[in-house]
Design goal:
The chain is 39% helix and 17% strand. Strands 2-1-3-4-5-6-7 form a 7-stranded mixed β-sheet, with helices on both faces. Strands 8-11-12-14 form a 4-stranded parallel β-sheet, with no helix packed on it. The longest helix has 26 residues. It is of the alpha/beta class. The chain folds into 3 domains: 228 residues, no CATH class; 196 residues, Alpha-Beta Horseshoe (pyruvate-formate lyase- activating enzyme), CATH 3.80.30; 82 residues, Arc Repressor Mutant, subunit A (Orthogonal Bundle).
């Protein structure tokens, strides 16, 4: 056997996105190596953990869910259970810390011991499954992301103890960036750590193990004399040349119609400059699949089985090329496919793209749009590459088209001030009629500090004091690795009290808006023979605005997308001062939103009430 490739349980094992989605890295590697005449066996153990736990009894199942769901996997999760087995000595020294965290979940140390034994049993069963393939295996690989590092390390160590001649490699976001060196320095059973995409890496690594004098690429490796070294980098295969993922469906505990297949639209972020994001450290080349290649992949799955109709769009920004989204929607339309997730940045999204996404098929869950705030000041701090006005344009288009979107809204951020909070809440108040639409979901969230992001690296410049250890390492006494996986770090803002107060105000604003009814909060416009009629309704208090033909032309010009005032002046042959005067009046009545420089604007009224989700 050339390669045994393993995906262990994710911390959030109960979510359908993790309990029902095969690991695409395993699928691609299986197809790629088999195409080259290599022998490869893949184990998607993360799909098997939930069925395993269900067989153990109701209270054990309930306790596993308590560990991983209510307070988030950063605070306590399945990864901590496997870590307590892996770092037994550190766990023994840390009983008080674990007891304190468990008490927040209404669990006792004895409950945790029961879960530890279940995790140990699962790892033992996994070893039993893979052992027949390990006697002559050249390389065992683990794909690590979404907080599955501890389970991977635990099984990896057991494999090394039983099969010391087998070489091991870990890869993925859980062991990337600066942490990769720290991880290998504190283990002796990992031979290689991937520092980028795995396809080229594994191909060359297998030849290296076989004795070919080929230089390693994209890995950390152990050198007998010099310790841990980093190889040179090499660009990965073009994404459109990779084979379609291959899965051993008969090995899965789920029926084909229960599986959610990961579908790559591309890889890597085209921006990579947001100050809160560590994506650049993952060393992933930004590439996009063509519409033709995506269509061929769907046709491939349909040829395997018509029951393969659930898809998870796996891409940090699926909107690399708007035309691809539009082109592929024509193929998807009418295929009765179900989509469970996708991520899109806002700056390239418009009505055409949103309409195309709606035609993909049925959206089981709202797809994610990167709208982190409505404050231009905070967007500048984030280096987000988008404006608050553009964020509002996207939300307005989605509301009108009935397209289901969701966004996470930061309630605090390094250097964020009360003025930023007020700007954010002013705009949220202004667009209440859009945010109350059933297809628009906004979730508040705190700032999250991962290693390798710009704020982490230059915390002093961002006026933030970070803890010396991640939240994971803090759970253990004398833990050897301050970083661990992509767990965040505790931190304190320079203006901590101001941030805490503002965070509460933003959360209250979100809750207030969520409590409102779309039947009692709307803003609609209608063109009339004499001009324009706009009806605004806020909490059942309605106002009618009547405008003439000039005002109508100005307003309609920005009814669907942002318009520059100078452009309106030229198109309508109106003096710029007259355009601005009209817009100033609209602004006083709360009917438009200006950009922060007042050079462009968006009309906020919709042509009709918000559509129901999926009704375009």
């Amino acid at each position: 056997m050339d390669l045994v490739f393993i995906s262990m349980p994710y911390s959030r094992f109960y979510s359908k996105w993790f309990a029902g989605v095969p690991n695409i890295n395993l699928g691609i590697m299986q197809a790629l190596l088999k195409k080259q005449g290599r022998s490869v066996k893949t184990f998607h153990f993360h799909l098997e953990f939930l069925p395993f736990v269900k067989k153990l009894g109701g209270h054990i199942m309930d306790n596993f869910i308590k560990i991983s769901e209510p307070l988030g996997v950063e605070y306590m999760g399945l990864d901590y259970i496997f870590a307590s087995l892996l770092f037994e000595d550190a766990y023994s020294r840390s009983q008080d810390r674990f007891t304190e965290r468990l008490s927040q979940l209404d669990l006792s140390p004895s409950d945790f011991e029961e879960l530890r034994e279940a995790a140990r049993s699962f790892a033992g069963n996994a070893l039993k499954r893979i052992s027949p393939y390990l006697k002559n295996t050249k390389l065992v690989g683990f794909s690590c992301s979404h907080y599955q590092l501890s389970s991977s390390l635990f099984l990896c160590r057991i494999i090394r103890e039983r099969f010391p001649e087998v070489k091991t490699i870990l890869g993925g976001k859980d062991c990337s960036g600066a942490f990769a060196h720290e991880l290998m320095s504190n283990t002796d059973y990992i031979d290689f750590s991937g520092i980028g995409e795995c396809e080229v890496t594994v191909e060359q690594l297998l030849r290296h193990i076989e004795g070919n004098p080929e230089e390693l690429r994209n890995v950390l490796f152990r050198d007998g004399e010099n310790g841990i070294l980093q190889s040179s980098s090499q660009v990965n295969h073009p994404i459109n040349s990779l084979p379609f993922p291959e899965y051993d469906f008969d090995d899965f505990p789920l029926r084909k119609d229960e599986l959610i297949l990961p579908l790559e639209f591309g890889r890597g972020c085209p921006w990579k400059r947001c100050t809160f994001c560590p994506d650049e450290s993952y060393n992933i080349l930004c590439q996009a699949k063509t519409a033709e290649r995506i269509q061929e992949e769907i046709e491939h799955y349909q040829s395997v089985s018509p029951d393969l109709r659930n898809f998870f769009i796996l891409d940090s920004d699926a909107l690399k090329n708007p035309q691809t989204i539009i082109d592929v929607s024509g193929f998807f339309e009418g295929k009765q496919l179900d989509f469970h997730y996708a991520e899109f940045r806002a700056e390239k999204m418009d009505r055409d793209v949103l309409g195309a996404v709606a035609r993909f098929g049925k959206w089981i869950s709202n797809f994610q749009v990167g709208i982190e705030t409505f404050s231009d000041g905070v967007l500048t701090l984030m280096n987000k590459g988008v404006t608050a006005l553009k964020n509002v344009e996207v939300i307005k288009s989605a509301a009108e088209l009935g397209v289901p979107i969701q966004s996470n809204l930061f309630t605090c951020y390094p250097q964020m001030t009360t003025e930023d909070m007020m700007e954010n809440n002013r705009i949220m108040e202004l667009i209440t009629h859009l945010l109350v639409c059933e297809n628009i979901q906004i979730f508040p969230g705190e700032f999250y500090l991962p290693a390798d992001c710009a704020v982490f690296i230059e915390s002093n410049r961002h006026r933030l004091r970070k803890h010396s250890e991640s939240v994971f390492a803090c759970a253990f006494e004398e833990f050897p690795m301050p970083s661990y996986s992509n767990y965040p770090y505790p931190y304190q803002f320079e203006n901590d009290e101001e941030q805490f107060r503002n965070s509460g105000i933003i959360r209250n604003k979100i809750d207030e808006i969520k409590s409102k009814s779309p039947q009692e909060n709307y803003m609609i416009y209608a063109e009339t023979p004499d001009g324009l009629r706009i009806e605004t309704c806020r909490d059942s208090q309605c106002t009618i605005h009547q405008f003439g033909l000039v005002e109508r032309d100005v307003y309609i010009s920005a009814a669907e997308k942002i318009k520059q005032t100078g452009e309106v002046s030229r198109e309508l042959n109106m003096p710029i001062a007259e355009v601005c005067s009209v817009l100033d009046d609209f602004e006083k009545k709360g009917l438009i939103l200006y950009s922060s420089d007042r050079q462009s604007f968006l009309s906020l009224a919709t042509r009709e009430r918000c559509k129901q989700p999926g009704k375009t």
